[in-house]
Design goal:
single chain, mainly beta, Neuraminidase, four-stranded antiparallel sheet, disordered N terminus
């Protein structure tokens, strides 16, 4: 009566042992093929964390702590004053970090820009305009039914805005009316689509999902674009980079990245001309580094891990 049960047990044990033997044999067959490629075949992230010291062209010269928790984004005006948004507040500091003013805003805020005596905030589907005293001057809904602010940049008679929901670039007049739009940006895993204006009045826009930068004129005609994919210093790694851009007085583009967190200088042809800060300068869990260039052409980086603004200058 027990023989059928015993037969089943013997069969089950035999099957398990056969599977184990097959796995061991297959592993043994595969291992030499992999090992024959040598250690260079193995992916080591540390290889991409190293930067040739000769490429590092800036040095860190200062640090300004942010007197609020969870800084999100920041901007700098023509006088060097700093405007830091922390979800539901705006902190205004002098260029040396001395506090000027703090005021509450409708949030959570995702992006900020300044233009003369106006502060522009993007919070959800709303773009708000404040003065330096924290008084709300104007607010309007972003274009489209599901606008979600991912970047904002006032320039001349326009306000440029990017949307993290539709992945669009918009040109608005100063009252928020839609003038032009671009619909083919690519974004996956970060809430920001960065923009910067170069000294000749061309708008540079990141398309992070493509690891691409684009150059537009005022009529939204594409003048140039380039894509840089890769973990080496010449490329943008991961799925969405750069996380932010800024432009210096000579037109040099400053880029920040996640995945391999670093800050670089690139010319307008997309060639790396130097490194501002290597990966070993940052906590590698950082998902977004906001960057601006101030009135002295210094590079300011908002470090959310250290909760402060790091200042870099040319060596």
């Amino acid at each position: 009566m027990r023989k059928p049960l015993q037969d089943k047990l013997v069969f089950g044990v035999t099957l398990v042992l056969a599977c184990i033997a097959a796995y061991v044999l297959l592993s043994a067959v595969r291992r030499p093929a992999r090992d024959s490629l040598g250690r260079s075949f193995e992916f080591r992230m540390d290889d991409f964390m190293q930067v040739d010291p000769a490429m590092i062209v800036c040095e860190e010269t200062g640090f300004i702590p942010v007197p609020q928790t969870a800084p999100v984004d920041f901007a700098v005006d023509a006088g060097g004053r700093l405007y830091i948004v922390c979800e539901n507040s705006v902190v205004i500091l002098e260029a040396d970090g001395s506090p000027l003013h703090t005021f509450a805003v409708k949030g959570p805020v995702s992006c900020v820009a300044v233009d003369e005596d106006r502060i522009y905030l993007g919070a959800g589907n709303i773009i708000s305009v404040y003065n330096a005293n924290g008084e709300l001057l104007e607010e309007f809904a972003g274009p489209g039914g599901n606008f979600r602010a991912a970047g904002i940049l006032p320039h001349d008679m326009f306000i440029y805005a990017t949307c993290a929901e539709n992945i669009n670039l918009y040109q608005l007049d100063r009252s928020g009316n839609l003038m032009r739009q671009i619909d083919d940006l690519v974004l996956f895993s970060i809430p920001r689509i960065s923009m910067a204006m170069d000294p000749h009045g061309y708008l540079w826009v990141a398309s992070p999902g493509e690891r691409q930068l684009r150059k537009y004129n005022e009529e939204f005609e594409l003048i140039d674009s380039w894509t840089r994919i890769g973990r080496t210093i010449d490329g943008f790694s991961g799925c969405c980079n750069p996380t932010d851009i800024a432009i210096r007085k000579d037109g040099t583009i400053v880029t920040t990245e996640k995945n391999i967190v670093r800050v670089k200088l690139m010319n307008q042809a997309g060639e790396v001309t130097g490194v501002v800060a290597a990966p070993d300068k940052f906590n590698q869990q950082i998902n977004h580094l906001a960057v601006v260039v101030d009135n002295h052409d210094r590079i300011l980086v908002l470090d959310p891990h250290l909760r402060g603004i790091r200042i870099f200058e040319d060596k």
